[in-house]
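ok trying again, last paste got cut off:
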Amino acid sequence: MSILEKLLETQEFATLPPVAAKVLHLLEYDNVDIRDISRVIETDASLTLKLLRVANSPLYAIRSEVNTVHQAIINLGLNRLTNIVLGVSIFSKFLLASQQVSPKVIERFWFHSSCTGMVAKSLSIKLNRFFKEYEFIGGLLHEIGKLAMIQFDGPKYMEVIKLVENEHYDDITAEKKIFDISHCEVGEAIAKLWKLPKEMSDVIGFHHTPLQSEKFTDLVATVRLADLLTELWDAGFYEGLSMAELSETDAWKILLNHIPELDAMDLEAFTFELEQDFKNSTLFLSLISS
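nice, full thing came through this time. structure:
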């Protein structure tokens, strides 16, 4: 049995959180009733509380207070609300992660994930590209494969981190040396196992190689650019990136192809504006971690 097969059979990653799985199942029906979605979500009191906190937070700037899941769906839209449910439920399930590694490593993982989600969301707004919250949730979950590898064998993943930090490996090369598989491959397999939407599966599987996404290159490129920016701002997670100019990255070139007016943009001023939004990342963590 391969490492990937063993990993996918571990209790933590074998199934999607129940409420998220039920919501995805309901969405398979064309005539889904939002009241049914609301009732499913409300069976999980903790998730409902966190969801309402997020919906009422400055992240969404809703004009009037939302007190029920039904209201949240009406105000945010079903697609956005569903993606927030997916993100919050998965994020909450794995927030404590593994006891086999330093808590600081786990804290750094979730901070990087939260930062990437926040910056991707801000980036999509500035680019006038709206991805129905897939950019935010994709940013949160883009490195779920790393968390799975940490859960599966924490001490072994610490060997990966040592190669990145001490021998200047990039994360994928180090992972393949130690595990014979990368976090992108692991993450994509988990996304497929959980039957996540293809948009999220592509972000998780191709965030290092956005050109491999056939239908969602601009979405994946947006998340990847956010991922790279967090590295610039010292909020990365052991990628071992030898930082190149953003304008030379595949992610930027893809976005430039989709949005030619970016060519005239002051990239330094643009990234400075995003950095201010990046500071909201701790807000999301505080909303769902208690």
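cool. Residues 103-126 form the longest helix (24 residues). The chain has one domain: 3-15+97-288.
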